[in-house]
Amino acid sequence: DSYNAFGYVEDVDSFSGLQKVSIRYLGALAMHFAASKIKKKRNITDEKEALKLALDNFECEGLKNGAKLFSSGIDTPDMGDVAVFGVLYSVRGLNAHSDSIQVRGGVVKAWYDRMNLQILGKEAEHRIKLGLSCKNEK
User: Fold this and answer.
1) Is the pLDDT of residue 84 over 80?
2) Which end of the chain has fewer CB atoms surrounding its CB within 10 Å, N or C?
3) Could you count the other beta carbons within 10 Å of the beta carbon of residue 127?
4) How far apart are CA 48 and CA 126, in angstroms?
């Protein structure tokens, strides 16, 4: 995902070919080292599994398995919702977003769609509409 995250440089006309290659490869390498340091500090061995567990917790504890529209427990999002949405929105277009929202589906996807409408004022764009929720896993 680090390499893909820097794919945007291909669309920047003011960068030369050498700059595009340098930014993409060196940026991905720097992200890899930074992520490795953070994973070690947080004792994370599998980042995808850690994200899945965090979303499971958010779904079950924060959204009460879909009983709450937002983690605030009211009809509008709070800063906790905005923070989680910001993290997930920042990786849109990458595998992490696909796995976290589109493939997962269920309560988290419905919440993400509501947040997208609340924050950006438009429907979220999804290519895949599949998924599980923690209700189905038990």
Assistant:
1) yes
2) C
3) 6
4) 20
